[in-house]
Amino acid sequence: MASTNRFDSRLALFLAPLAAAASLALVGCAADDVTTLGDEDAVAAEGAAGLGLGARGADVRKVYEYLRRYGYFQNAELAEHYPDWTPAVSREPADPELFDEALEEGVRLYQAQQGLPVTGIVDAETHRIMQMPRCSHPDYYDPPSVVPTLDIENPYTHFGGTWSSTALSYKFANYTSDFAQASVRSAIESALFSWTSISSFSFSEVSSGENISFGFYTGSHGCTGGAFDGSSGVLAHAYSPGSGLGGDVHFDDAESWSSAFLETVALHEVGHALGLGHSTVSNATMYAYYTGTDTQLEDDDRAGIWSRYASYASPSGCGSLNAGQGLSAEQSVWSCDGRFQLKYQSDGNLVLYMGSSPLWATGTNGAGGDRVLMQEDGNLVIYNASGHPVWATNTPGTSNRYANLAVQNDGNVVLYRTGGGVAWASNTCCH
């Protein structure tokens, strides 16, 4: 069983103002409303801004305890719950109330991990980030332990293993009473669909034997070390890919849920359930810190999931790119009569040819494109290897879900909605 009753197999959002850093509590997720931080919490570490080498006092200790909490210094609780974990900094400060070279190293590694300017000083921006809600998962933990570095090659990270198949099943174990069951289902399914749209994953609902179970629970609910603690504490947790509890996502039913907020949290947690860790990119879904309601995956989220799984299936047969299919360099889709070729060239240009004559092109040659995806959301997109869109038909939407792109025998390339109707066309008819 890859992910069982161990806290190390779960990631979760945790409201962690710097003032609370001295109280290590390995308990899942963030408070339900980040706008409710009161003055006591907001000003607790106000004096920490601008701390650097040679500083001394209680504010220095708060910084040390905060970094210790998230894996930068020796921590017996982390060592117990996370196999193979080692602190990011190999040496301990001689005095936790003295800002010495060891603490400076921890601050520098922290800044690198959060995508901040690496100064080694707890400046205003570093202090601001430390006050935000974040995941309780320790930084620089990607078993087996990574070697901490200031030169982070990829912003995204991995978490646990991967699924052996990208065709996954899910089940709703129960629901919250905060709003309608249909809306709960819609919010979570939208989160699943977002990951489906940019990867080779597909999800189907089942009544038993599921890979991923979504449920709402309170208090102790059968997860060793993972009891929910009531309103404004734990919000949710997710398990890494595997059998048993692997992939499952639990939400704290003591919180006050809304549809948009649930989708935001589910989007993050599903990323963990698929095997993604945290990103250093602040606007990414997989960033460790919660920054507000956001239901859109970003470039680094796309690059992260592509680093673990294929982004699309190759087309088969003639004439079309179906939802979930795509093209890499020098791959083509031909009209069924063989006269027209839609080719994704190695220069990054998607071109429709009639014989050797180009009829239409995206004009993206030299723009760094890496792949073409016919997404499940109905958008045809050229992406570069970093997950940034280079060109798109700009046709995403519920009405276009599971659309397909047809290379017709009349020389027209048409994106058809599932229920009929044209969402986009190259307007190259008729030949």
From TrEMBL:
CDD domains: B_lectin (cd00028). Residues 318-428 form the Bulb-type lectin domain. InterPro entries: Bulb-type_lectin_dom, Bulb-type_lectin_dom_sf, MetalloPept_cat_dom_sf, Pept_M10_metallopeptidase, Pept_M10A, Peptidase_Metallo, Peptidoglycan-bd-like, PGBD-like_sf. It is an enzyme of class 3 (hydrolase). PANTHER family: MATRIX METALLOPROTEINASE (PTHR10201), MATRIX METALLOPROTEINASE-21 (PTHR10201:SF323). GO terms for molecular function: metallopeptidase activity. This is Matrixin family metalloprotease. SMART domains: B_lectin, ZnMc. Its EC number is 3.4.24.-. Keywords: Hydrolase, Metal-binding, Metalloprotease, Protease, Signal, Zinc. It comes from the Bacteria. Residues 1-30 form the signal peptide. Pfam families: Peptidase_M10, PG_binding_1.
